Amino acid sequence: MNFQLSEEQQMLADSAKRFVRDNSDVETHRRNKKLMPLDAATWQQFADLGWLAVPFEEEHGGLGMGPLETMVLLEALGEGLIMAPYIATVVLGGGFLRQASAAQQAETIPALLEGKLQVAFAAEEYERVFTLENTAMVADLNGNEAILNGTKSCVMNGDQADLLVVLARTAGQPGDQDGLSLFLVDANAPGVERVPHRTVDGRQGAEIRFNQVKVAEAARIGALHGGYAIARQVLHEGLLALSAESVGSLSVLLNETVEYSKTRKQFGKPIGKFQVLQHRMVDMFMEHEQSISMTYMATLKLDEDEVTRKKAASAAKVRIGQAGRFIGQEAVQIHGGMGMTDELAVGHYFKRLTMIDSEFGNIDHHLKRYTGLTEMELPAAAE
């Protein structure tokens, strides 16, 4: 894909790549996995570099950039396995805060841009993954407040977030898109209990339990019962941000494998000289290029109609998931057993890509969604 970055976008990518070059290697990644959560100094560095301000409007102190610049930044950061809650706080959290009231924005966005506020989106529930409409957690309305009861599972950055964006049911039954509302909840409010856990790629999430947690009406984002549409739009942006991070990780896996094939010798010559391995690495290259194209195509279609936007996002997630599985497996196979050891970067990138596939819907979920959306369009096209 011949996609030319603007001068501003190239500067953003270059700054992220310099950061990765100076702060990321296998030893650093192994050490950071043991030190989770992320140290405050690193997150403050993100703020000082202006990266936290990328998607926010200038009137809020942001840089006034869009989703494309966010993708460029995350692709570069994905090359370094940077264990920072950028997607959870800036892409998802920031996406919700941009939909919030002026008072809510004034209270939260400046702190986020300064690196003093981290956010997490609490949506998934046990046995109800990937589908927002199946949310069962209840928010009982009582005058000018809502009372939250229930449990959210696998909350990204849930262990260290200062502010939670909670999706809860204020009307209807699980399966209904109507009747869902969004609330801003202090992560340290009475009745909120967080149980941290590790993910397969070494990051931390949390199970979050709500027991009679009282939330004022002023803490609601958007209209009552109108949270589904907002959450779906923000998740599309998060899905594409994850895809961009994956593209960066896929690039490293491909390059590491090609370089290894030039130095590892078998039968008196580098294994990269064997045609069968050359073919496999060409297949890896093609998977990577297709992933880049699909990610940027879906990003450019964020402003299209709902069906087009959904189809593009699902297509990108399917392509990224398939490419991550293929390139990761091939990289490990060509490296041999040492490809899954902690001493090499290959295994760490493969674990991260495996985790990304399960976030915001896996390959099967998005393939099914894409097929369903396509079938919806067929009758309309026939007319």
Tell me about this structure.
There is one protein chain. The mean pLDDT is 90. The chain folds into three domains: 7-118, Acyl-CoA dehydrogenase/oxidase, N-terminal domain (Butyryl-Coa Dehydrogenase, subunit A, domain 1, Orthogonal Bundle); 120-225, Butyryl-CoA Dehydrogenase, subunit A, domain 2; 229-382, Up-down Bundle (Butyryl-CoA Dehydrogenase, subunit A, domain 3), CATH 1.20.140.10. With 383 residues, it is α+β, with helices and mostly antiparallel strands. It is built from eleven helices and ten strands.
Observed structural traits:
Butyryl-Coa Dehydrogenase, subunit A, domain 1, 52% helix, alpha+beta, 11 helices, 383 residues, Butyryl-CoA Dehydrogenase, subunit A, domain 2, Butyryl-CoA Dehydrogenase, subunit A, domain 3, four-stranded antiparallel β-sheet
